[in-house]
Amino acid sequence: MPTALTDAAVTLFADRLDLAVRYAELLVTDGVVRGLIGPREAPRIWDRHLLNCAVVAERIPVDSTVVDVGSGAGLPGLVLAIARPDLAVTLVEPLARRTAFLDEAVTRLGLDRQVRVLRGRAEEVTAGGEDAAPAGDVVTARAVAPLDRLARWCLPLARPGGRLMAMKGSSAAEEIAEHATVVARLGGGEPELHRCGVGLIDQPTTVVEIVRERVVAPPGKRARSSRRGGRNRSR
Predict the structure, then answer these.
(1) pTM for this one?
(2) How far separated are the first and last CA of the chain, in Å rounded?
(3) How many helices (H) and strands (E) does the chain have?
(4) Which tens digits make up the pLDDT trace of 76-123?
(5) Which residues touch 232 (CB under 8 Å, ≥6 apart)?
């Protein structure tokens, strides 16, 4: 870890800093070998990835259930689990090689009781059953898709009143303006832009938050329901 980042890392990870260090070592070794982290990212693993994700914890209430969509190598979900032992975290990832890495990382870090790994797409794990994700107080996503698609995939994973927290780049405000209407149609409230880690890291993390204000049935279900209703009336 670069010396200049030590104070921020201690603040964010506290007595679990050793776990964060072990996870960083996994990312720059196995993560690079397996193609989950680019070789050029290894020297920047702390400032660009771990600290950048950990600061999002300041927006998450105590004892929350967190569902991380498109978790990849565990960013931000596994980082949040390390920084916040009070969180119950589910990592959702469709690719087998990534879920294999996540399963191994969770076991090697001793986080089996706190973190669950689910292989599947967001829309697949919203259905009931043994492999369904829990209703999240918070649903996180990092660099997964534009805001309209994120809302479509992630809002159904949040409990009513829960929220989507999407980590975004410099175009976050433009995405909000472009997709706010679609978000509302999907049951989301007005997107809010927040910057996490101000005064702690050099480049604060931009997060777009959307509350799930109401439950909206998937378009296919509404269409089928409408067709059935039409047949019944015709009889």
Answers:
(1) 0.89
(2) 72
(3) 9, 7
(4) 999 999 999 999 999 999 999 999 999 999 999 999 999 999 999 998
(5) none
